[in-house]
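Dear H.,

Thanks for agreeing to be a second pair of eyes. The structure we're designing against is below in token form, covering all 335 positions.
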């Protein structure tokens, strides 16, 4: 949306790469081939992958931009829209990189506390955004680290009410029962971020994508580095799209295991929050973390205001059984 665009970007032209058939290619200073064509730069905007993804999402390819994970896309939004000293607003607790990226890009970061770490007071949040005169608003949904969801009607109320670009980070959305689709055609100030890292199980290839209206995507392409998604990642992304049944099956396993682990943690009075993601957020005595650590079982530990809170990724049934056994041992030793 041009209204919020940085002044320097308004007259900036995107780096253009000519993609066409050739007999001899000597225009990009590439090296001599020695391993299957990898001397060539990748297709700049991942055309084949972007077109396949657009078809899955019932979108035009011009409504998508691909990135080196969602993290790059968050930074591209800041490159395009955030002037030095302007404000980014999110809620707390949330993904720590939102604040880090804001500081890197010379912005001011403000967060609004969730009630009981899981409920967003939507009207209070809207007033907070207006008070801080935010340029960007970032909403993790489901939220990391709590796993909680903001209802769609509340998301849309925020988008309608604030004078800012709204980044809806849906990295974990496939693990929820949230309505499919997005509202980027209706709202010019909304962008949606998703990833291949979580539900598709491909964190190692670093692939994320942004959905937005064509105008916004055009602005993002102005600030995007050329060739930002490598050849191997593009190929693996296409392979993933061809194997949706594997992804769907894995999601259902995670959902079942999430409920099993939630019930177990509740039985142990560790009070996990309800989660729409592939993890559970709970409070526990430090000796539980220490016992898991001593058995080489890694869960996420937090500090500061989140001291004594932990995040457990939902693993395979076998991995979850190992966690259950380790926690049972701690409980039995204490009794």
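And this is the sequence the design step returned. I haven't edited it by hand at all.
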């Amino acid at each position: 949306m041009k209204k919020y665009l940085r002044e320097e970007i308004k007259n900036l032209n995107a780096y253009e790469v000519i993609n066409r058939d050739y007999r001899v290619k000597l225009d990009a200073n590439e090296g001599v081939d020695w391993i299957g064509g990898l001397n060539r730069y990748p297709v700049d905007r991942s055309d084949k992958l972007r077109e396949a993804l657009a078809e899955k999402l019932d979108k035009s390819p011009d409504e998508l931009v691909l990135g080196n994970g969602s993290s790059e896309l968050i930074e591209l939004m800041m490159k395009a829209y955030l002037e030095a000293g302007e404000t980014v607003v999110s809620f707390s607790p949330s993904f720590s990189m939102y604040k880090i990226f804001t500081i890197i890009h010379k912005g001011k970061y403000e967060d609004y506390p969730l009630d009981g770490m899981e409920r967003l007071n939507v009207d209070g949040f809207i007033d907070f955004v207006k008070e801080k005169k935010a340029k960007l608003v970032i909403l993790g949904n489901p939220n990391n680290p709590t796993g909680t969801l903001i209802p769609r009607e509340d998301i849309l109320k925020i988008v309608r009410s604030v004078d800012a670009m709204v980044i809806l980070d849906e990295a974990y959305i496939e693990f929820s029962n949230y309505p499919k689709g997005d509202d980027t055609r209706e709202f010019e100030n909304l962008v949606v971020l998703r990833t291949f890292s979580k539900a598709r199980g491909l964190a190692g290839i670093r692939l994320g994508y942004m959905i937005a209206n064509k105008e916004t995507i055009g602005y993002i392409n102005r600030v995007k580095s050329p060739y930002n998604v490598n050849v191997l990642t593009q190929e693996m992304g296409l392979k993933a799209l061809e194997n949706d049944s594997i992804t769907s099956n894995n999601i259902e396993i995670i959902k079942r295991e999430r409920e099993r682990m939630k019930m177990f943690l509740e039985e142990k009075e560790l009070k996990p929050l309800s989660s729409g993601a592939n993890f559970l957020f709970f409070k526990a005595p430090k000796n539980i973390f220490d016992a898991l650590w001593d058995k080489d079982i890694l869960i996420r530990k937090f500090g500061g205001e989140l001291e004594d809170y932990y995040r457990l990724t939902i693993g395979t049934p076998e991995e979850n059984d190992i966690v259950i056994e380790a926690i049972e041992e701690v409980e039995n030793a204490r009794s």
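Two observations from my side: The chain has two domains: 2-242, 245-334. The beta strands are 64-67, 87-92, 108-113, 136-140, 165-169, 190-195, 208-211, 279-283, 300-301, 309-313.

Warmly,
E.
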